[in-house]
Amino acid sequence: MSLLMLRLELLSDTLIGSGEGWGASIDRDVVFDDIGLPYIPARRVKGCLRESATEVVEMFEISGIGTASNEDIEVLFGKPGQDQPCILSFSSCYLKEYDSNKKWLEWLIKKYPDFFSKEIILSTFSITRQQTAIDSNGIAKDHSLRTSRVLTKGNAFFGEIETANEIEERLLSFLALTVRNLRYIGTNRNRGFGSIKCNLLNDRGIALEEKYLIDLENKIKEA
Q1: Which segments of the chain have a pLDDT < 50?
Q2: Which CATH number fits the domain that encloses residue 79?
């Protein structure tokens, strides 16, 4: 088995939407666990990386480099609508030292319920934003005000990517470039939210993409 680490840092406030609200005060909420610690679901991570991989392949095709193909995307991420497994397995992305911090916070909630709660913990990593629709006269439309909870920039999340066997160098290079190319995630990512920086780390915590970016630059110079 080969184990890689994904590091995802928020460069702007980000809405990893849960599809639900919080009572009557928040219309769109982020994803969080049972004590209020936010996380990014594995399916969301995989879907965004698949989109990024498609962009990388398109860039390769336009440049004529031909380093990766749509078949490689299916090898890494699977083929939609088919049960054949892909070679990569993704975990959800959590805050650093999530397991140990969660245990301590669970203890604090039980010990000091007046000072620690799910809402208080979640508010440590998030803020609320309000948006409204504007008509052609520059006036806010009636009943269009929406309140969203967003994760604050600067938070970093970590997840694991596993392969049953050692991943071949060519596919590892493609994956590293795909991770580096992922720059936005979440809801309203075209409206100022969800700017991120992604790194693919090996089992020693060393970022891999710089090496493959240098290799790619050399291939471009030789083309």
Answers
A1: none
A2: 3.30.70
